[in-house]
Amino acid sequence: MSVVVSLPGKPCMPSPYSFGVRAFDCGIHVSTDCPEAFAILERYTFPWLPRTFNAADGAGDSIDDPIDAPDISLRVVRLADQFQLSANDVIVVSAPQAIDLVPDIIRVLDDAVIPRMRKLRAVHAGAVLLGERALLLPGGTHAGKSSLVAELLQRGAIYFSDEYALIDSEGRVHPYPRPLLLRNGDPVQSPRLADEFNVATGEAPAPIGWILLLQYLPGCTWSVAAITQSEALLSLLRNTPHSLAESPDIVRIFESAVASATCYAGCRAEAPDSVDRILQLADNS
Asked: How much is the CA Rg of the chain, to the nearest whole Å?
């Protein structure tokens, strides 16, 4: 099976299994000739968004807004005993099972969608909703954001994202509930959907209630203290994929984001104990 990614504006080849998705300001087309691969693509390609189908695809009903000229097209092809993922006609990765492609599919989609957002600015951060306010966990790769988000979902939090917090001009966070990518002690990431935790995904923007800058240190006891909103603002700027030159409004937007937040920084150990402490902080502030 193969996932094919076409160049922007390049028509997608007809396929018996394909659909389009419009994620924020990015048009996406996904196709494969393999039903096994199609099931994986359908499940993990922005699963909360509606799909569009062309009548020729045979995959669903024709609608008024098919993605005929996508910004990015994904295609999966099966070659012998391998599934090959391509993006923009460039091979990304091959794997023995279609499910093994999912982490790379998610990253390719992130790289296409995030830079094209016109009204939202992204921060590398886990984000969940507690009550009516969002909790942000900024951090880079391997910072343990996903494990904390997964544990928070186990405690009933509403899922916004495990990788990107999307912030609007009023400082509110919008849901970006892509599949979680969890390691669980394994170097290979495994995808999980919010519904596997029996929780809902966010449907509307929310003000930020808390920002926690937590460094994972094995064997560390919980050692977290309050920080100023200015320190939290600097952390958001350090963890954004946007440059100041390309997004000159980003400082003002992030100032609005931290204005309503209680902010902390420090080190933590394993996710279950850390989430106990996080929920205590949230209850007390």
From this structure: 20
d(CA 129, CA 205): 10
DSSP helix/strand/coil, 92: strand
What CA–CA distance (Å, rounded) separates 64 from 259? Answer: 42
- Give dist(CA 133, CA 137) in Å, integer: 13
pLDDT, residue 145, reads: 94
Quote the tokens at residue 65.
Answer: 């807004």
Residue 69, pLDDT score: 82
Q: How far apart are CA 49 and CA 25, in angstroms?
A: 13
Name the 3-class secondary structure at 75: strand
Distance CA 149, CA 176 (A): 13
Q: How many CB atoms lie within 10 A of CB 61?
A: 8
The total of structural domains in the chain comes to 2
Same domain, 51 and 33: yes
Neighbours of 167 (CB within 10 A): 28
Residue 100 belongs to domain spanning: 2-116
pLDDT score at 53: 78
Question: Is the model's pTM score more than 0.85?
Answer: yes
Q: Which residues of the chain have pLDDT under 50?
A: 1-14, 55-65
Q: Would you state the pLDDT for residue 65?
A: 46
